[in-house]
Design a protein that fits this description.
Strand content: 5-15%
CATH topology: NADH Oxidase
Distance between the termini: 14 Å
Strand order of the largest sheet: 1-2-4-3
Number of helices: 5
CATH superfamily: NADH Oxidase
Mean pLDDT: 88
CATH architecture: 3-Layer(aba) Sandwich
Largest sheet: 4 strands, antiparallel
Length: about 210
């Protein structure tokens, strides 16, 4: 039986950062101080990891031309992926994207993947680490929340993993034993996305609440 919690509690400041974080896909043409980037990465390093292996490695792009080059190459691979997946997958993907204002420029424009963000972080981990995906996920959330605390916006980019299939992947100098799990873009946002409705009927208290 579901029981409502009515007691008011004082919210710590970190919750404000969590609630205000959004996936932003439009950025101002402002660079990010390298010292801030370092602090954000430090926050990522503070994430928990299986057996404290801290498997993540970070490959950071901040040059506009380089970012656009990687974006275009990844966009090509991502487009091929959807074509190979077949009509059903394409229709399903488009349907899911229709709620986002950026879906109309999917794989188009000068920076189709990284949305002209001034910072791109590729996060890798060993291919042999079975828990790496979970660890990278927790690390990534720390990074995005830290970015928000500095007044920056961010967005996780799943297409970032396709960088391994591009002809310019070698420029990142990622060891062959590692794989790219995710890319995160960071910068000063130039939009204020609305909060998507959150599912709230998905918590089940097994023991009675006193």
């Amino acid at each position: 039986m579901k029981k409502e919690l009515t007691k008011e509690v004082k919210e710590p400041g970190v919750l404000k950062t969590i609630y205000e974080r959004r996936a932003v896909r439009k950025y101002k043409d402002n660079s990010v101080d390298p010292a801030i980037i370092s602090k954000i990465l430090d926050a990522g390093r503070m994430a928990p990891s299986a057996m404290n292996k801290q498997p993540w490695k970070f490959y950071i792009l901040t040059n506009k031309k380089t970012i656009k080059s990687f974006s275009k190459e990844i966009g090509k691979i991502a487009a091929k992926y959807f074509l190979k997946a077949g009509p059903r997958q394409i229709i399903k993907t488009i349907a899911n994207l229709l709620e986002f204002p950026h879906s109309t420029r999917l794989f188009k424009g000068p920076d189709p993947v990284f949305h002209e963000a001034p910072v791109v972080i590729f996060i890798t981990a060993s291919r042999k680490n079975e828990w790496a995906a979970l660890d990278v996920g927790m690390c990534s959330e720390n990074i995005m929340l830290a970015a928000k605390s500095f007044g920056l916006d961010s967005c996780p980019v799943g297409f970032g993993k396709f960088v391994e299939q591009t002809k310019i992947f070698s420029q990142l100098h990622v060891p062959s034993e590692d794989q790219v799990h995710l890319a995160i873009i960071i910068g000063y946002g130039d939009e204020n996305p609305e909060v998507h409705k959150r599912i709230t009927d998905n918590a089940f208290f097994i023991d009675p609440i006193s």
